Amino acid sequence: MNPAYATADHVFRVPLDHQAPGGPAIEVFAREVVDPARVGEELPWLLYLQGGPGGKSPRPASGSPGWLPQALETHRVLLLDQRGTGRSTPVTARSASRFPSPAQLAAYLSHFRADAIVADAELIRRRLCGDTPWETLGQSYGGFITLTYLSQAPEGLRACYVTGGLPGLAATADDVYARTYPRVRQRVLDFYARYPDDAPRLRRIADLLAAGDVRLPDGDRLTPRRLRTLGLCLGMGDGFERIHWLLDESLGSDGELTDTFRHQVMALTGFTDNPLFAVMQETLYGQGAGPTGWAAARALAGFPEFAEDVDPLLLTGEMIYPWMFREVSALRPFADAADLLARRTDWPALYDPGRLAANKVPLAAAVYHDDMYVDAGLSLRTTREIGATRVWVTNEWEHDGVTASGGHVLARLMDLAAGRA
Fold first, then answer.
1. In whole angstroms, what is the distance from residue 377 CA to residue 166 CA?
2. Closest-CA residue to 339 (of 383, 291, 375, 267)
3. In what order do the strands lie in the sheet with 134-139?
4. What DSSP string runs through 356-391?
5. Quick check: 89 and 83 in contact, CB under 8 A?
6. 77, 70 in Cβ contact below 8 A?
7. Which of 104, 166, 315, 400 lies in the 20 to 30 Å Cα band around 368?
């Protein structure tokens, strides 16, 4: 049987700090993927920028990820493990615990934002393509990186495709979370409307956790507030069903939580594979506008319907709270460093509004009307602030539409960028 894809692995040595190229270096890994029948052809490159932060690039399998077969009809694809993820000198609880002080760890982590990822990409492009620009596909946070790329190195880009990931160019963390809580509230209420029995079941579980010391398999205590972080799943196409079937097997005949439920909750809420998601989440919005200061936690006080004693019990979404770094074992080594990052006031700007307004690189963006994670209103405002941009607004797909749709979303964006749609 012929393989679905031909692949080649690449490892690049890059500076930890691109402003100090003679200093410490890290490794960045990327996997080249091509149609086996076209290995020897000169094909344009498509760089995939994964969502996150802290997510490694997908590992290709037959027909997966859903957009890949479409891309390989015309392109050679590069699946980049962004610095700190996958095989790119990964940042883990173990590696974090080796730093002599929180200040040194925080200084290290400050080099894992979008500007550094763009600098890595440009170094890699020059080694693989020389002076030839390539195209990018940015999913979710990958769209944020795309706008940093267009701000800092547009000469490296031929066309850009973004799915569910256009940030507000001047939006602060406070702006973002003021908009996020209402969207999450509505998504949870929609979930309960689909599965009415799950609201009392979640309340029963939360009361059980509040009344006793319930432990997960790794020893972490499962509390009502950690239970509520399961809501992070609800913005994906299969999110309602993932949570529903998890709850379906949550309670045994003895009224206690099942081992299956505890194991799955540990995996879904533990950040073992992607601690950078939690550590770097609010740094996405740090651009010299003062400290982010645990914005999601501060904003929570303005939404009393999210209190733990209110019914129906509302799950939370893409919010990161200080308590996570004391209660989740994979995040504990980052706790003091995360506090330092939250207090930092001198983050460099990630976007150049003037350069983006004058942009000439074709940018095609899918904005998901009901996106739980990235505010559609901010996204649409951004599309009006960037030159050469064409936007497709749809409620047909959730945040993971580029994968869930097969090749449909990517094909539509390619047509938009090329002026065919």
1. 10
2. 291
3. 6-15, 25-34, 76-80, 45-49, 134-139, 157-163, 363-368, 389-394
4. HHT--S-EEEEEETT-SSS-HHHHHHHHTTSTTEEE
5. yes
6. no
7. 315
Q: In sequence order, which ranges of 251-400 are alpha helices (DSSP H)? A: 259-269, 275-280, 295-300, 324-327, 335-343, 353-357, 376-383
Q: How many residues does the chain have?
A: 421
The count of other CB atoms within 10 Å of the CB of residue 166 is: 30
Question: Can you give the pLDDT at residue 2?
Answer: 54
Instruction: Give catalytic residues, as residue numbers.
Output: 140, 346, 399
Q: Which has the closest alpha carbon to 78: 18, 137, 27?
A: 137
| Residues forming beta bridges with residue 137, ordered by sequence position | 48, 161
Q: Give the C-alpha separation, 18 to 132, whole Å.
A: 21
Which of 37, 29, 42 is CA-nearest to residue 75?
Answer: 42
| Positive or negative torsion for Cα 159, 162, 165, 169 | positive
User: What separation in angstroms does the CA of 346 have from each of 105, 143, 283, 287, 340?
Assistant: 17, 23, 11, 7, 12
Q: pLDDT, tens digit, for every residue of 215-227?
A: 999 999 999 999 9
How large is the greatest C-alpha to C-alpha distance in the chain, in angstroms?
Answer: 66
Residues 322 and 91: their CA atoms lie apart, in Å, by 19
pLDDT of amino acid 62 = 85
What residues does 8 pair with on adjacent strands?
32
Q: Count Cβ atoms below 10 Å from residue 298 Cβ, excluding itself.
A: 13
- Alpha-carbon distance 311 to 226, whole Å? 17
> What's the whole-model pTM score?
0.98
- Helix or strand (DSSP H, E) at 31: strand 25-34
pLDDT of residue 1: 41
Supply the pLDDT for residue 303: 98
Return the sign of the alpha-carbon dihedral for residues 344, 347, 353, 354.
positive
- Using an 8 Å Cβ cutoff, are 160 and 363 in contact? yes
Q: Which amino acid is residue 212, in one-letter code? A: G
Which own/partner contact pairs does 188-194 have at CB distance under 8 Å and 24+ positions apart?
188/231, 188/234, 188/312, 188/314, 188/315, 189/312, 190/240, 191/234, 191/240, 191/243, 191/244, 191/315, 192/312, 194/240, 194/244
Nearest Cα neighbor of 50 from 126, 179, 138, 115 is 138
- How far, in Å, CA of 284 to CA of 279, rounded? 10
Alpha-carbon gap, residue 349 to 341, rounded angstroms? 15
Helix (H, G, I), strand (E, B) or coil at 351: coil
Cα→Cα distances 240→235, 243, 319, Å: 8, 5, 18
